[in-house]
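User: I'm putting together notes for a lab meeting next week and I want to include a structural view of one of the chains we've been expressing. I don't have a solved structure, so I'd like a prediction I can at least talk through. The sequence is below, exactly as it appears in our construct file.
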Amino acid sequence: MRGKNTNAMNILITGGSKGIGKAIATELAARGHDLCLVAREHEHLVETAKVLVDQHHVSVIVKTADISRPEAVQSIKNFCQEKNFTPDVLILNAGIWLAGAIETSTPKNFSTMMETNVGAAFSFVREFVPLMKKLPYGRIILTGSTAGIEPHHRDGGSLYSVTKWAIHGLAVNLRQELLMTNIGVTHIAPGSVATPMWDPEEIQADRMLAASDIAKLVATTLELSPQAVVEEIVVRPQHGNIS
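Assistant: Thanks for the context. Below is the predicted structure for the 243-residue chain, given as structure tokens.
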């Protein structure tokens, strides 16, 4: 199903019920695109979808899933096919933060973060790229972090940084692999963004990026001519990241 926008695309967003993912969903719905939102918390997904449908009159389907499991991603693909929803765009945004230094973190925490922050993106690419290659236009946008291009600026952020370096590596290599196809790949690396990933007491809204800033950048990359691919976006607060 397509919305009233004749240029509407089908866009799948992971982590689409909170923070950056929800802001991206809101911005894209406002521009008339139809969405599939994926997240772990069903209530937030349903609530977000209802608001977007009521306000912007687009189609929004939702799938509750723990995307750290490859079989869950396969289930999401099956769900999309049942709904006749082949994504033109994948926005691989979901991620978790578990504080820890490389030297002292547990193997379990390392595995959990790698499976959620990196493994899920790998699984989505494996499942959806063959379908997207059949479309005239496709884009994959991976939400990384400035912690994926430099050491993390917060204490306890080393493991998170490792996963975001991996996302950066996945993005640049995937871009090269898909260079001669219809699918462009964008890596977006925000600095400190005011989202629920932070302790509420740590948030300094006047010093941090708004989630809507990232949403507007994502939406704009999708409005360029089909032959234009934004390969990387790095965006930080004016006065630098919060430490």
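A couple of points you could mention at the meeting. Strands lie at 10-14, 34-39, 60-64, 89-92, 138-143, 183-190, 232-235. The first strand starts at residue 10 and ends at 14.

User: Perfect, that's what I needed.
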